[in-house]
TrEMBL record:
Residues 1-66 form the DAHP synthase ferredoxin-like domain. It comes from the Bacteria. It comes from Saccharothrix variisporea. It holds the Pfam family DAHP_synth_1. One of its GO terms (molecular function) is transferase activity. This is 3-deoxy-D-arabinoheptulosonate-7-phosphate synthase. GO terms for biological process: aromatic amino acid family biosynthetic process. InterPro entries: Aldolase_TIM, Class-I_DAHP_synthase, DAHP1/KDSA, DAHP_snth_FXD, DAHP_syn_2. Residues 87-321 form the DAHP synthetase I/KDSA domain. Keywords: Transferase.
Length: 345
């Protein structure tokens, strides 16, 4: 059961509802979104009378949810959500381009990649300061130094930062530097990390696990939402199949399916799914054509020397092609390329 609060409900009214629920044999989990606040009830929901709950001050509606993922389901939120990151919208009506280096290596390298991203029409900068790698001998990221570099590049370019966190112990530090926190495929079911990120109050990009079903993906999002954060963007980045010609298999069908089941925005990562530079633009076009709310793309000024995922990074010559693909396919699907929402800054 989910209680939807009125947009103008006061903090006193919110706490009144929470105390009423907690007085029974149940727990109340408050989640704040851009446009609404909802309260999820966990426990013996049958003890509560819906009509009485609706009569409580500040309550707009009470909804019984059959889906396991109650807060991110469209059952209680029929209209799709828009998540804003540093004034940049991600959601229906726009196509948002996120671009940058897979890993932060130096200030100059990150700044060059950020300028490439901006030239392509990106309004958000991605860059990894922490890199969970399959091999313990591979580059693991610069950590706090990488975060400081990202903050400096944001200051120089005006691009809000999206970066990954891999440990609950680092969540507060990453949140101090990032405009959006990314959960990578290997941590999609790191439940302690999901809960920590949900509690910190920053927008979250949740990548689908390489072996995860769509329901498992949405249940992972529910962990974040249950801790008070509805500003979640789902990212399809390819799943593991028997095919060996690509790094992963891009499941474009996940976009409309997830959009039907959840109100959260859904984007696609054409870089990590294909794993090859020559596949990024075709997969990006497919992503926008199928209705993805955005794409996240790797770019690098010198990918042959990149410390992480150089073969999939777009180069300078690809930037005009990326800009054209995003603009043309956004227009073909009746949408605009996302720009900074100055009202939301």
């Amino acid at each position: 059961m989910v209680i939807v609060m009125q947009p103008n409900a006061s903090e006193h009214e919110l706490q009144g509802v929470v105390e009423f629920i907690s007085g029974g044999n149940a727990e109340a989990f408050v989640s704040h979104g851009v446009n609404r606040t909802v309260i999820g009830i966990v426990g013996d929901v049958e003890q509560f009378d819906e009509h009485h709950l609706r009569s409580l001050p500040g309550v707009a509606d009470v909804v019984r949810i059959s889906a396991k993922y109650k807060l991110v389901s469209r059952e209680h939120h029929p209209h799709r959500s828009t998540v804003r990151v540093g004034g940049v919208p991600i959601g229906p009506g726009t196509v948002t381009l996120i671009a940058g280096p897979c890993a932060v290596e130096t200030f100059d390298q990150t700044l060059e990649a950020a300028k490439m991203a901006r030239d392509a029409g990106a309004t958000l900068l991605r860059g990894g300061a922490y890199k969970p790698r399959t091999s313990p001998y591979a580059f693991q990221g610069l950590g706090p130094l990488g975060l400081r570099i990202l903050a400096e590049v944001r200051e120089a370019t005006g691009l809000p930062v999206v970066t990954e966190v891999v440990s609950p112990a680092d969540v507060d530090t990453v949140a101090e530097h990032a405009d959006m926190i990314q959960i990578g495929t290997r941590n999609m079911q790191n439940f302690a990390l999901l809960q920590a990120v949900g509690a910190v109050g920053k927008p979250v990009m949740l990548k689908r696990g390489m072996n995860a079903t769509i329901e498992e993906w949405l249940m992972a999002a529910e962990y974040i939402a249950q801790r008070g954060n509805l500003d979640i963007v789902l990212c399809e980045r390819g799943i593991r199949t028997f095919e060996t010609q690509t790094r992963n298999t891009l499941d474009v069908s996940a976009v409309p399916v997830a959009q039907q089941l959840s109100h959260l925005p859904v984007i696609i990562d054409p870089s990590h799914s294909g794993g090859r530079r020559d596949l990024v633009l075709p997969l990006a076009r497919a992503a926008i054509a199928v209705g993805a709310d955005g794409i996240i793309v790797d770019v690098h000024g010198a990918p042959d020397t990149a410390l992480c995922d150089g073969p999939q990074a777009l180069v300078h010559a690809d930037i005009p092609l990326l800009a054209t693909a995003v603009a043309d396919f956004a227009a073909a699907t009746g949408r605009e390329v996302a720009r900074v929402d100055r009202v939301a800054v």
